[in-house]
Amino acid sequence: MQDYSNNSYQASIASNFIRSVYTYMFIALAISGVIAYAIGSNPITFLSLFSNSTGGLSLTFWILMFAPLIISFVIQWGFQRLSQQMLLLLFVIYSVAMGCTLSSIFLVYEMNAIAFTFFVASGAFAGMAVLGYTTKTDLTNFGSLLYMVLIGMILAGILNMFIGSGMLDFIISVIGVFVFTGLIAYQMQQLKNVANSPDFSEENRNKLALIGGLQLYILFINLFLTLLRLLGGRD
Amino acid sequence: MAEKFFDKTTGPLATIYVIVLLAIIAMILVWG
Q: What is the value of pTM for the model shown?
């Protein structure tokens, strides 16, 4: 009886953790989505905020584009030194900055294509999250491999900005769909391990839920943008 | 202990790739 109540207590802590992860993820998505739509749905608003006198994109736009990288380093490397409130503030700034730069998709892609891709990405995300949570297979090696492929995709993507090959872009995007759906399953399994581990203090659990939510959010955005490159009908 | 579960490079790596994708979209926006 004692074991049973201990187990059910542990199970309720685990389900609370996963619920917190998803809450953080949806908060980030909501912040970014609302800001991206508010700015991007009206080209005049976008141009008044982010274009410079020569018709290019302003320095503010580029700063907002690179800010999430710095924030992600600070969050991931310093989470044990930072307070929960500071992490939450960085998390919100990350989502706001991402929303500002994501607004550009509304000027490049049709609204129908964006909505359709969002639903495809959501479906794929949900399927892989369930798979990652329920599978008995250890995905650790698989995840490490996928992150190595991701490094290759980053290098190839940067290289292709100078080459401009449509075929290479298509190949990277197709590989990207597999990499990000795989990483979502891998990350979900990692989060399940944290959820079921009795070794974390409540404070660390709260921080890890925030980081987990941010990681799932950024994987979702990657999957969404990669699918948008493929399904958006631009190239 | 937390490091056992979270590789410190995963978030930044995924963020770098988002930036690459957004930069490509920005290039389409500016140059068509």
A: 0.92
State the count of interchain CB pairs (< 8 A) between A and B. Answer: 112
Which ipTM did the prediction report? 0.89
For residue A45, CA distances in Å to A62, A98, A177, B10, B25 come to: 17, 17, 32, 34, 18
Of A208, A215, A234, the CB nearest to B2: A208
Residue A84, judged by CB atoms within 10 A of its CB (0-12, 13-18, 19+), counts as middle
What confidence tens digit (pLDDT) does each residue in A160-190 have?
Answer: 999 988 899 999 999 999 999 999 999 999 9
- Residue showing tokens 């979900």: A188
Closest CA to A215 of A187, A175, A176: A187
- The secondary structure element, H or E, covering residue A163 is helix A140-163
Domain residue ranges of chain A, discontinuous segments joined by +: 2-231
